[in-house]
Each structure stands twice: as C-alpha cells, then as structure tokens.
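[step 3/7] inverse_fold.run input=structure_tokens len=741
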C-alpha cells in the first residue's frame, strides 16, 4: 500500500469504533443496520433472510416475498448459482461496488475496494476523482468519465474492464460533484490534476453533452478509443424511463441508476433531501419501459442507493435490476459509524479523512478483511433467499415482480411497481412533532453562520423514508434534469431568482419575504427593514408596529403610508371599507388556508394585487392545498398573472420547501420559522442577511438541478417538476406519483 506522496505522523485506525446510537427515524443507516453489517464483516457469516421492513414509509420495506423471516445459524450453505454478467463481464455475484472517488475516500478504502473486486471476481467503480496509482494496478474496475474529467486521459481510460459516463447521482441529481477545498491536499491534487486547496466542483452538465445525440457521440468515441463496454450512470428522477430508453438506443451497454438517498462525500443538503425518487420506483418503471420498447435483452441495469441488505438486493432485482451497487454498506463494513463528517475530512474511522500529515487513516488489512467477510455473508444471504424462492440461479430473479407482494401499497403504487398489493390500513399522511430535527437545526445554524449553500455528507435523512412526514410537502420530490433536459451549473451560470409582484410594482431579487417574530423589538424590526431594503426583497409587518417611515418601499403593512411597498388587509378589513381605490399602493388580502381561497375575495379580484395564505391563521385545509387550489382557480379564470399568491407557512424550514411551494403555485414565500430558529440578538443583522443569501443560493441550486434558468417565468405553478410518493397526495396537490409515466 503506497500513497501518491509521503505522509508523516498518520494515525492508523485498526479496530472498530463504537457505533453511534441512532434509530431508524434519525438515519437510514441506523445503529441496528450498521451493527448487523459489522457482525457480517467480523464473522463472514449470514445472519437472516426475508427481513421484515421497519420503515413504514419506505416503499421497498413494504414489499416482501411473502415469506416469514428466517434467523440463520450462520453455517447454512446455498445451492443456487449467483454468477451473472454485466456488459459481457462475468461476475461471481450480481454486485457492483459503488463509485467512490479518491479524495472523497482517503485512499486505503479505494485500494481495498479494487483488491476485493479482483479477489471475489466482482467489479468496482472508481468514482470521478482520477485514478489512484494503487487502484490502477487492478483489473476489475470501471473507470468513471465524469463532467470535470478530473485526472482522465487515454492511459486512465485504458485501465480496467469498462467505462462509466457519469451523468447524475442519487444524492444530487442535476448537480455536479463537489470535493471541498480543504480536502484537496497534495495527493488529491496530483491525481485529480487540480490546485491544492481549491474546491473541486464538477459542472452540473457535461458541457459536450446537451442532448441524447451528444451522448451517443461520447459513447461511440469511448468505445472506439478503448474497445471497452460503456455504462451510463444517471440519478433516479421523474423521466428516468425515457432517459434510459434513449441511452439504450444510443448504444450504451447498460445503465447504473442511483436512487434518492444514496450516499455522497459532499452535497447540498437541500438537494439530497428534496430531489430524485426512490430506486425501487425508478427500476420498476425503467424495466417495464425497456421491455415495452424491445430494448431489455443484453442491456444491463444496475440499481444503486440504499441497498442495505441481501433482501433489498433481491427485491430490487425482482423489480427489474440485473445487479445492485453497494457503497455505504461497504464503508460500514470497514468501520464507518455514520458520523456524517465526510465533507470536512475529519472522519473518526479514517475512511473519508482529509489526506495530509497527521491524518487518521483506516488500517488496510482490517478494512480488506472486513469487506471480504461482509460481501461473502451478503452473497450467502442472497443465495439462501434464492433457494427459498425455488430459483436455481440469480438471473431467474430479474424482473420477477410476480414473486413480490406489497403491504399497505395502494392500487396506484401497485400498478407502478407491477406487483400484487393490498392496503387494509393506510399510513397517516402527517405525524406529530417539530420539523426541527437535529439535522435541520444544524442546517439552520449553518445557513445563518455562512450565508451560503449548506453542504453535508452521506445520504438523506429527510422525509418520508427516514424522518416521518409532518407536512404534505414532505411527500414531494423535485425533478433533476439529465441529458434530454440538461441541468444548469449554478456555480458558473446565472440563474435569475428575481420575482415581480403587483404587476411589477414590487420587484424583488428573490421570492423571499421577511416575516418578523412576535418577540422582536422595534429596533430589530427596523434593522430587518434595512436588510429587506439592502437585499431588494420585502418585509411583511402585518400586525406589527412600523418603527419609522424608512425603507417604506420594501415594507408591507396593514396601515397605509405614502410610498409603502404594499398594503395588507384582512377579510374583515375589506368588509368595513368603503373602497380600496383610494390607496395608491398594491393591496394584498391575508387569508387562512381555505379550500377555495378565491371565493371570499371574488368581488375584489379586479382591485387587489394578490392574496397571502397564512397558516398562522386557523384554516380549513393544509396550506399547500390552499395554494394549489388558488393557483388553479386563478388560471381557470384567466387572471393568474394579475393576482399574486404569497404563502406564509409557519413550518417552512429550508429552501427546498420554498421551491416546492413555488412549483405548487406560490409567487413568493414569507420566511419566519427558519429566521426564528437561527437568528439571535447577537449578530442579528448579519445572520438575517446570511439566511436570505443562503436560501437564495440554495434555491438557485435547486432550479439549476431541474434545468431551469429563471424562477418567475418557469417555476411558479409548474407541478410537472414535482412527484409525490403517495397517491393520496396526488389528488390533494395535483401532482403525479413518482414512477408514473
């Protein structure tokens, strides 16, 4: 084991650290899941098969083979044949060890993965970080050709057995790679051929692939240059079936589909939690589409993202995958404790450490022994599952959806998955509790501290699959653009976040309105007015005092003063007024969330600029439903673009919520809860500025991921950018179900 350059004073971690105590509502990779993987890594023996799913809101956990769980002694043997092939390459088992780059990982894990792939006759992806010289020695690797081409040349491409063109990944669909500059040390700089200490930001799109025809040129060129099979890696998103059909027709040998929640070394937290769909829905839809188009035979489909057990693998293969990719579980087997500090380089287990003098690095022999044991145990469990299903080889499992049964699966989900299903008792759409989970409390404080996109690592802990859903919006996923609709790089291209309210009379640099907290002092309100003025947004002082007449053009208030940005009235104010024409300012009506919010203001529609739906007021329905119904009714009347919809949602906690509300129909959102969570008296003004800046930049990231250049003309009411994970929400919010064609 040799490094690219000499490192001194490196501390070697040669034993497993204590597992962090996390239940399955705090982390997908909970302490019980990690503990089981660790047992397999130590013993090399299978533990159990036909596991009962513990996550009520994860669709894959609600699928089963109709068998009772079997606890194993560990010495059981299987007779079924696990051998298969991907793109003509023979494998001892349908396992692709996932793409994890050198830089994201600390070197030892990269080498271990390549060595294990050789020894167990599997294949491993190298990720986009260039090629570590000790990895390049190994044969059973697939070299990644990603948008930044870090360290890639013809010599690198000629290594290994095949090439992966990375278009997207499950942790950040529509977003390029991100290795923070603090992790770009000497060895990483040398392999990636980039400057030390500078963020390695891969472009969101390949700048030579803006169409499916462009992709064909790249596939053909790589095959011509190397003579090797070429796979294309995409994220699981709304249009995955159409994208994969295009990839197959363009001559690729296969596809790797990376599902929502997949792991990463660094990604914007709001992208991880809000973009992309679960792997099980994508695989079922892709497999059906390929078969319908006559393209399935000879085309490899590899499923990635949150494959935590052989049971997951078997169910995903029955839905249509030829093989599964294992990434996070392999890191768990090496000793990862899910500290989620990968992006900082301060990995306590030494797996994702910043590679420099004084680093903590995992021991090579410990990691290799553990991974081999884990994968052998994983294969044994998969073989025993096949035996119990009466299948002679793993290839017979692919696409056998008839073997699966869904529990608490609605008829619409059952149709998408093409499985038998029933639902005698429906899951609640919303659970009690605060939206401010530990992860989002940290997110809010980071936003207030940095004023920039909040980066985190590993997979999503967001709702509904991990954190129980508490709002209807928690069931929604945003789209991530790929190939047929290229994403936009928000780091290098301008995304216009401006919005024009009241027919252009109230122009704002971002669709964000400050909503003060009731305990703010007059001095704090005055400073918040200054921030709104400084940042070209608005502040809504309905129900508050207005300390001075300063910055009135950015102020929305319930009393008219000359030069005010907008006058805000309630329904009771309207009923007592003689006329509203006397006010020379835009007028907005504040309403509770109503099923038909347009009906009570119908007589005033030609006289007002818009409505503010405020869930601080007791209403009839969820605020998301009220926004959708207002948007649809105004469109039906042909006056949508002359009547604005603003929403104040007291549980709004991130930029992801704001973009979803916009896609549901809101022109702008009022921000109060996240401000209240993170803005303190100490540093009040700076933190308020940082939160608005951070939200605006994150919203630009989300728009870029969806391939959208402008907020105002493209995103508002564009529900096609959304998918729901529950058909009941489809009816409420008029949004398609994930996986629905």
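[step 3/7] decode complete -> sequence:
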């Amino acid at each position: 084991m040799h490094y690219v350059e000499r490192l001194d004073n490196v501390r070697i971690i040669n034993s497993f650290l204590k597992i962090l105590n996390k239940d399955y509502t705090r982390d997908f990779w909970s302490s019980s899941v990690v503990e089981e993987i660790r047992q397999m890594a130590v013993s090399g023996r299978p533990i159990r098969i036909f596991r009962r799913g513990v996550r009520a809101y994860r669709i894959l956990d609600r699928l089963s083979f109709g068998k009772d769980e079997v606890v194993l002694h560990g010495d059981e043997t299987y007779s079924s044949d696990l051998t298969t092939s991907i793109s003509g390459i023979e494998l001892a088992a349908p396992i692709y060890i996932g793409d994890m780059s050198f830089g994201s990982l600390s070197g030892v894990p990269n080498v271990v993965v390549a060595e294990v792939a050789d020894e167990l006759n599997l294949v491993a992806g190298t990720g986009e970080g260039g090629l570590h010289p000790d990895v390049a020695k190994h044969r059973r690797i697939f070299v990644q050709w990603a948008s930044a081409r870090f360290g890639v040349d013809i010599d690198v491409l000629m290594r290994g057995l095949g090439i992966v063109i990375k278009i997207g990944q499950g942790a950040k669909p529509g977003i390029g790679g991100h290795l923070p500059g603090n992790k770009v040390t000497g060895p990483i700089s040398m392999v990636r051929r980039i400057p030390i200490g500078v963020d390695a930001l891969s472009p969101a799109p390949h700048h030579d692939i803006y169409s499916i025809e462009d992709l064909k040129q790249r596939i053909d060129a790589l095959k011509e240059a190397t003579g090797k099979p070429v796979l294309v890696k995409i994220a699981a998103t709304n249009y995955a079936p159409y994208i994969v059909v295009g990839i197959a027709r363009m001559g690729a040998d296969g596809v790797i589909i990376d599902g929502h929640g997949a792991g990463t070394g660094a990604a914007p937290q709001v992208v991880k939690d809000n973009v992309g769909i679960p792997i099980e829905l994508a695989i079922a839809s892709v497999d059906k589409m390929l078969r319908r188009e006559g393209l399935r035979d000879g085309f490899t489909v590899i499923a990635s993202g949150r494959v935590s057990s052989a049971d997951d693998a078997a169910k995903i293969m029955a839905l249509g995958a030829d093989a599964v990719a294992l990434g996070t579980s392999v890191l768990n087997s090496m000793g990862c404790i899910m500290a989620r500090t990968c992006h900082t380089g301060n990995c306590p287990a030494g797996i994702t450490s910043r590679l420099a003098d004084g680093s903590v690095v995992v021991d090579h022999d410990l990691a290799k022994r553990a991974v081999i044991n884990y994968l052998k145990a994983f294969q044994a469990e998969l073989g025993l599952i096949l035996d119990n299903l009466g299948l002679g080889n793993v290839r017979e499992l692919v696409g056998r959806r008839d073997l699966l049964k869904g529990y608490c699966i609605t008829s619409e989900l059952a149709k998408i998955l093409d499985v038998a299903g029933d639902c005698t008792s429906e899951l609640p759409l919303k659970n009690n509790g605060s939206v401010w989970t530990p992860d989002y409390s940290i997110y809010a404080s980071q936003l207030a501290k940095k004023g920039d996109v909040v980066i985190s690592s590993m997979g999503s802990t967001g709702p509904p699959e991990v954190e129980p859903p508490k709002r209807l919006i928690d069931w929604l996923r945003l789209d991530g653009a790929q190939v047929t609709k290229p994403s936009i790089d928000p780091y290098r291209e301008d995304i216009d976040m401006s919005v024009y309210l009241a027919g252009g009379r109230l122009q704002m640099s971002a669709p964000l309105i400050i909503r003060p907290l009731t305990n703010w002092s007059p001095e704090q309100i005055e400073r918040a007015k200054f921030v709104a003025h400084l940042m070209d947004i608005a502040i809504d002082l309905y129900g508050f005092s207005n300390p001075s007449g300063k910055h009135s053009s950015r102020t929305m208030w319930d009393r008219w003063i000359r030069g005010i940005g907008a006058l805000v009235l309630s329904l009771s104010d309207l009923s007592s007024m003689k006329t509203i024409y006397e006010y020379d300012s835009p007028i907005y009506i504040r309403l509770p969330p109503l099923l038909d919010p347009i009906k009570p203001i119908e007589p005033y529609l030609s006289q007002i600029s818009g409505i503010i739906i405020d869930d601080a007021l007791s209403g009839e329905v969820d605020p998301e439903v009220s926004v959708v119904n207002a948007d649809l009714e105004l469109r039906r009347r042909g006056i949508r673009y002359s009547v604005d919809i603003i929403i104040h949602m007291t549980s709004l906690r991130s930029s992801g919520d704001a973009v979803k509300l916009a896609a549901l129909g809101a022109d702008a959102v009022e921000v109060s809860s996240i401000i209240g969570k993170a803005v303190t008296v100490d540093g009040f003004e700076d933190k308020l500025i940082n939160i608005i800046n951070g939200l605006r930049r994150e919203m630009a990231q989300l728009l870029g991921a969806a391939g959208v250049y402008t907020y105002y003309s493209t995103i508002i009411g564009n529900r096609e950018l959304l998918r729901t994970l529950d058909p009941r929400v489809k009816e409420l919010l008029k949004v398609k179900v994930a996986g629905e064609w």
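[step 4/7] annotate
The chain has a mean pLDDT of 94.
The longest strand covers residues 230-235.
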